[in-house]
Write the structure tokens for this entry.
Amino acid sequence: MNDSFDSKEFRQVLGHFPTGVVIISGLDGAGKPQGLTIGSFSSISLDPPLVGFFPGLNSKSWPAIAESGFFCVNVLAASQSDLCWRFAKESEDRFNGVDWSNSPNNSPKIAGAVAYIDCAIESSSQIGDHLLIVGRVQSLEAVAGAGSPMVFSKGAVVTTSQLT
């Protein structure tokens, strides 16, 4: 990296762009649930239906999930900040005490999320210090009455009324 480039300033400035927060979940080769918090999730294409996200190259959770060929995007509710932070840190027991059920592709659907997007892995490409994972949407669901989605801005979870 360029010595004159300030990565701390880069993160601080880009933190002014609010993002939604999701937990990408799946099962590892042993059938154990795995997951990681992602703030770089996006819709890519309507035809075919594709979504994408960017896990870091050093993630231990993503390679374990990728073994299955499937993942589920759990769009977190504003009230789920505890899960956001739990799944942001590498840990063997992230799912300990977390209520979840199986998606149609058997990936964990975390209870209380506002939406679920169940995907098959379409492609994976290295871009800088991250991977670009593209998933083909297999099924999806918005949960009626689940509340507002979580939004992250300037290093913190915020409500949409705080974004002004």
